[in-house]
Amino acid sequence: MKESLDLESIARKAGVSRSTVSRVINDSPNVSEQTRQRVLAIIEQENFHPNAAARALVKRRTDILGVVIPTSSNVFLSDNNYYPLILAGLNDAIRQLDYAMLMWLGEVTQDDQHLMRKLSNPHLTDGLIFVSLPSDHPLYAKLGRLRQPFVMIDRPFTDVESTNYVSVDNVRAAEIATEHLIRLGRRRIAHITGDMTITDAYDRLTGYKNALRAAGLPVDDSLIIESTFNRETGYYAMQRLLPHKPDALFAASDTVAAGALQAVLEAGLRVPDDLSIVGFDDVDVATQVTPPLTTVRQPIRAKGEAAARLLVDLVNHRVSAPQHVILPTELVIRRSCGATATTSREVMSAQ
Amino acid sequence: MKESLDLESIARKAGVSRSTVSRVINDSPNVSEQTRQRVLAIIEQENFHPNAAARALVKRRTDILGVVIPTSSNVFLSDNNYYPLILAGLNDAIRQLDYAMLMWLGEVTQDDQHLMRKLSNPHLTDGLIFVSLPSDHPLYAKLGRLRQPFVMIDRPFTDVESTNYVSVDNVRAAEIATEHLIRLGRRRIAHITGDMTITDAYDRLTGYKNALRAAGLPVDDSLIIESTFNRETGYYAMQRLLPHKPDALFAASDTVAAGALQAVLEAGLRVPDDLSIVGFDDVDVATQVTPPLTTVRQPIRAKGEAAARLLVDLVNHRVSAPQHVILPTELVIRRSCGATATTSREVMSAQ
DNA sequence: TGTCTATTTGAGAGCGCTCTCACTATACCA
DNA sequence: TGGTATAGTGAGAGCGCTCTCAAATAGACA
């Protein structure tokens, strides 16, 4: 099936040397147009493809970028299309930059020796992108020994300054979302967090607290419930929150907000009349629920693209580490918060 | 960053030959326990990783499988989590079999030379998996020249017999869904198709028509509308269908059904009283809408797993092509069809 | 103690490419 | 006409591994 066909055989057929064929393949300018055409014709005719391994061996680069999404496949699948959007962004940029994308999904356990080896093998990929690497992840410990450049999507927990990452200003965005609720007259604002091993969730909680304090409102622990980024936990979290009579909710993601909304509605309360809701992300579900969610829009796809671009720059030494890319967010007003949408949007640019 | 560290240097430090280090790395039994331990210690100490390219060059395999999802990223993202589920299945099996997954997402145009080259390069991946390759896709023409084994998820349009694929019996499943509606007394059953360049959509339409004919009902073209696998097109398709007074709908996917449901509700009709709905897939959205959807459940994740396993078997010559894997489906009765759920489930095994 | 077998080790070729260096052919100028 | 610059080409080494084959060593037995 994979019959042997190498530069040498193409060279023979074209009546040139291996070197010349190599030049043609690599678009070297030092080949006469005539020779180039002849060689190209033979290559096409023979359906020849240069051996990627041989090339990688001498060039010391594979033109492959590794993408690691260590999130449990449960979350990967359930948080609406947050991860698929990240993936689409990564994919688009990686393809455009003419790299290939090697992907690992799901949990990596300490004892997953094979995978760990592959991941840390500096000869398989030219660089790595980690999406939402949780603080308690075994890979965290290995990061230091990594022999290749890497970029994280979301702020890392440790070594923040020295690590390359792409994120949004979650703290400020959460402050703005919460301030919005406060401005609407809400005083008992609850918060359902995301997975607290992910900085996004951590920072949004911080922003929420900041805003309450700044407004002179108490931070009431009974109004804060930890969950993970999915609809179901959002639903149950809200059920537990309801007895404490919140008049608003800032949810760590739209999926969580959607689950919470359902719980509120089932309890016979009206949204936004009895309770305002603000989500985060602005993914599909935000507009598919009734009432549609006021939410903090973040450029999810662009996060993927930016991370891929940054990594390629790093691989090619076009920038020097560490780099921190902070993308802007925007508060999108819809019906779930109860704001009179005279100005339908409140724009915020973080950084 | 990638300092040169090869077998030779490890060998020197351990006082053995390159061959012996190679044996240790490849778990060859012909190494004394003592030597193995010594070499392993040095490898760990030096943080050594064998060069994948060099290994691939001589072994003529990369242990990488390519996954191609040529669907526009629009559909990839919008059809609920169908594609992410396929991806999760592929990922799990590929990881378990100790391969790595190279992924290409999104449309591939004819002139995307770079990508076409990479895809057909038999030295980069050991095999390829195509997910829902549309009939009009430029890759279709290249399939014959491919120098590596490949598996398709979903029945191919052409060369069905000679192609390796994993699918469900969409025709039979659609027949059962439609028969169910007929049995409930529905007579004007509409159908909203999926993307007709994908066999799934094509076969479901066939099954729908088969069932009508078998029951002696007319196949009314005004009750059939073509759409793509997403919520929005489902919504608009249903709006166009409504004037023709259907009393039931069989939708090509749950996402489509969800969009259609919204249109029905907005038109002031009741589901299932005025109109029964049956979807396909049984993804999250099926239970998130009100009323929850009666639908044909297909083992999406298992399709990915089966495809990966089959490909690995093919790569290792453990089975001979062509192989056709048909997975079972199941009609799941929920509230959208109006069936009295005495038996809450009607089980069907295709093949 | 020597012979035979089994186990463990090493030497060396070669996988298919790139890249440097040297060489040839052509063009240009004085 | 000779000298020099330049475009185009080829030879050959070497990237880091695996794998075959032969050699060395150890173990078993008479």
Q: What would the keywords be for this entry?
A:
six-stranded parallel β-sheet; homodimer; seven-stranded mixed β-sheet; 434 Repressor (Amino-terminal Domain); 351 residues; disordered C terminus; Rossmann fold; 14 helices; alpha/beta; DNA-binding
Question: Biggest sheet of chain A: strands, sense, closure?
Answer: 7 strands, mixed
> In CATH's first tier, which class of the largest domain in chain A applies?
Alpha Beta
- Average pLDDT of chain A, to the nearest integer? 90
Question: Largest interface by residue count?
Answer: A-B, 52 and 52 residues
Task: Briefly note the CATH topology name of the largest domain in chain A.
Answer: Rossmann fold
Q: CATH homologous superfamily of the largest domain in chain A, by name? A: Response regulator
